[in-house]
Amino acid sequence: MTHFTDTVELTEFISGLPKAELHLHLEGSVQPEVWARLARRNDPHLSVTPDDIREMLKYNSLSDFLFAFMALTSCFSEPDDFRLAALECGREL
Q1: Nearest 5 degrees, angle CA 30-CA 53-CA 43?
Q2: Which residues does 3 contact at the CB level (< 8 Å), separation at least 6?
Q3: In 3-state terms, what secondary structure has residue 85?
Q4: What is the C-alpha to C-alpha distance for residues 38 and 31, in angstroms, rounded to an integer?
Q5: Is pLDDT at 5 greater than 80 in this prediction?
Q6: Whose CA is closest to 76, among 48, 47, 34?
Q7: Are the C-beta atoms of residues 77 and 92 closer than 8 Å to each other?
Q8: Exposed, middle or buried, 24 (CB in 10 Å: 0-12/13-18/19+)?
Q9: Position 1 confidence tier, pLDDT thresholds 50, 70, 90
Q10: CA 91 to CA 93: how far, in whole Å?
Q11: Domain ranges of the chain
């Protein structure tokens, strides 16, 4: 068993351990580029950019969060939308 003499050693040891994603929500793991792509795919008249999505995700209140959540999850309208989001999420992990 390894014994650590100080907090720095322990912190460095923990930082070096392999990590695993134990739990995530698909909607929360979609990158702004994918959200913008989904939005444009489902509404070709929309001119949303990844930077627009990033700004939307800077919320300061529950109502801001709920607005962003509802707007972004409305981009999921077809099974292929979920497929794309899941594939891109897997690539990020």
Answers
A1: 85
A2: none
A3: helix
A4: 11
A5: no
A6: 34
A7: no
A8: exposed
A9: low
A10: 6
A11: 24-92
Cβ pair 54, 32 in contact under 8 A: yes
Query: What are phi and psi for residue 62, nearest 5 degrees?
Result: -65, -40
Cβ contact 75:39 at 8 Å: yes
**Tens digit of pLDDT for each residue in 60-87?**
999 999 999 998 899 999 999 999 999 9
Q: What is the rounded CA–CA span in Å between residue 2 and residue 34? A: 44
Residue count of the chain, please give it: 93
Q: Tell me the whole-structure pTM to 2 decimals.
A: 0.70
27 Rama class: left (phi>0) / alpha (psi -120 to 50) / beta: alpha
Residue 68 burial (C-beta neighbours within 10 Å; 0-12, 13-18, 19+): middle
Confidence of residue 37 (pLDDT cuts 50, 70, 90): very high
